[in-house]
Amino acid sequence: MVTNSNSLIKREVEQLFAEIKAKRGECCVNPITGGGFVMGLDPIAIQKKEAIVALLAREWFAVNGPSDAPPLPLYDVDSYRDARGLKGVVGFYARSLSRQRYDVCKHPSFDDFARGLMALAKERGLWNLEKDETLIRRFPPRPLVGMMRSAFWAPPEEYEELQRRAEVFEFCFATEGRRLLDAEIKCHC
User: What whole-number distance in Å separates Cα of residue 169 and Cα of residue 138?
Assistant: First the structure.
């Protein structure tokens, strides 16, 4: 008997959302993605769809990602950033993939992403990934177009806008920061 994993995932999502005991107007957490919503005000169908898509991405990663990789985190992605080695890279990949709404066709492959992440780490330093020789050998650094300094990937149109905003922010911070520092030095003299 062939089982449709999508129907199993839908059943799991339905069950998890049925366990949410909240009244209208109460804040809730999507049990799969960790996203917030307000019961009775935010459409629950959208939350369920996001949960299903995330679980399908996890399943896709289990089949198409490295065989020795941990499961793709969906909820507590930031805890993976504290991890080292492959688990840490998987955490960065999960965070990046979540920003693209788990669209595994749109997002670069894990290998391309990992190599881009290592290139970024070698260039700027990133959670000491640049010192992990095992990762460097496994994922030889290669710049990835769209890789942001914050260690996530953005498609070309979003990348250009984010880069522009980062430049403006850096300019404003540098200008205002210098002014504030100068003012503080004058006050303490």
Answer: 35
CB 147 within 8 A of CB 163: no
> Does residue 117 contact residue 92 with C-beta atoms inside 8 Å?
yes
Express as a percent the part of the chain with pLDDT over 70.
Answer: 82
Could you count the other beta carbons within 10 Å of the beta carbon of residue 96? 23
- Over residues 108-122, the mean pLDDT reads 96
Q: How far apart are CA 119 and CA 172, in angstroms?
A: 27
What is the pLDDT at residue 30? 95
pLDDT, tens digit, 9 for 90 and up, residues 146-168: 998 888 898 887 767 777 777 76
In angstroms, the Cα distances linking 106 to 2, 97, 153 are: 29, 9, 10
Average pLDDT over the chain reads 86
One-letter amino acid at 21 equals K
Query: What pLDDT sits at residue 102?
Result: 94
**HSE-up of 152 (CA within 13 Å, CB side)?**
20
- The closest of 113, 116, 109 to 141, measured between CA atoms, is 116
